[in-house]
Model the fold of this input.
Amino acid sequence: MMRACLTFITSALFFGYSAAQSVYLHEASLLEHEFVERLEIKSGSFSDHIFTSLKPFSRKKTVKYLEHADTSIAGLSRTDRLIMKRFFADNPEWTTEKQPASERPVLGLFYEYPVDFFRYEENGFFLSLNPVLNLIGTFEESTGELPYLNQRGVQIRGLINEKIGFYSFIADNQARYPVYVNEKISDQDGAIPGEGWYKPFGDDGYDFFSVKGYLSFRLLPNIDVQFGQDKNMIGNGMRSLFLSNYSNNYLFLKLNTQFKRFHYQNIFAELVDYPMQTFGGRRYDRKYSTTHYLTARITDNFRLGLFENVTFGIVDSLNQRGFEAQYLNPIIFYRAIEHQIGDPDKVAIGLDWQWLIASRFSFYGQIYVDDFYLKDVRKDLDSLLVRIGLRSERKYNKYASFRNKFGLQTGVKWIDVAGISNLDFQIEANLVRPYTYSHFDTYGSGLRPAASYTHYSQALAHPLGANFSEQAARIQYRYGANLAFSLQAFKYKHGKDMNDINYGGNILNDYSERPDDYGMYFLQGDKIDVTLLDLMISWEWKPNLFFDISTMLRTEKQKSNNASKSDLLFSIALRWNSFPVKHYF
Done:
């Protein structure tokens, strides 16, 4: 597949249409993404400049949207305008107004502009180079240990003749994590959340690289292309049931086709089935994912999106399977293709929506469906009617089928709460049935199913995988462009496996190894109940140089042994051209 992608890119670069093209915001830059969504809600209508359910945002399109918002949206606060000004300073290659230079550049070469360590602009070439530093020190009260993160690296982005954009991020990390994060790493077969390969470091520590990089260009006036290693997200919530930025970076080719009210995105991705090494040697098994997502502005304040994905492995037995070229078709229904080749792969569909109300609220949600059998739904409805007294006796003797694998999300964002400028609130609920996102061993070889919706043993959607319910809330307040307060609260229940029985919570497992076809209840298995509160204060002292103080309270109860534990963590951080690193699962 990657050879085909490279051929496509080479042909496009040399023979295709070329016009102004941008790189993207960093996928972890929540401030910029949430600020744009805040202004969209405040405007009361959707824009054709940017489709906020597709992340990360294009820098060029974000600048265009903010420049338009600066003059078209009524009631912008002083803080809103200061944040806009900061964003324009960070993206000088696309702003219409020239940004002021530094009064005292270092050695006449570095920090000629306050936001960039080194910047070069001449003859159609733009280059921005910045060091990356993220130092986090934590005190874990329950153990008395001192978890930490020590990240150092460099970030480069550039533009050639406003036609080809490029981006690279390289960082070396040493880290030690709290107990609950180490437990998550164990659940993921040794994979660090959001990261890739590592080696041991010191006492219970990890040493690893964080690397991403890509090229972007415009193929046609309405089609943008991105090729490289990074993360993507589809959705408007704190979580996504379609595609999130939780897992490790992966290689992909992405096509964004935009025409007025419509945006169509294709992602062709090569994934890694870590730690599987079916054929021996050092190479981990490969797997693939192809995604279609079409979103349309139905009215000025209502948007609807359709999602489709197929995930398939090339290794499920001792016979290595080739790539299914039919899945490269960007405008076809994948279920039909899967039927034609023998139903070996995991195909899913979804629907999402967003509704802006009164320039204050955004209601959003997602429905994700792996499998859905109408006959089994009738059995569930029959059972429900008897339980609530609307029917005296049951027509069917079975219900709660494992085959009804789906997830639901609903949420609301409320900006300027109670009339207080820049005080924003969000609340969200997610639930996913057992065995959703998982798959079966196609060849009955006894190997772990390659087609689960995972990459590097990490969920591509919600971090909890399946068989869970979650309620989440976040309140944020910004004072000026440099000071931010946030309080986040999460409560979730997760049905985990117990006694070596697959109850549908671990999506890496083979769903054909289940207790039964029916009686597969929501939150079955060993129920884990977690509550988490996280308070954070962030201050930007100099451009892109931050000091963070945060405290997190986490409690966990386990049903099988009636055990409970709690932990209190205090953290301080120094960030330079970097973003907060948070582990909530």
Notes: Helices lie at 2-15, 30-43, 59-72, 78-90, 179-187, 334-341, 374-387. The CA atoms of residues 413 and 502 lie 36 Å apart. The domain at 2-100+124-576 is CATH 2.40.160.10 (Porin).
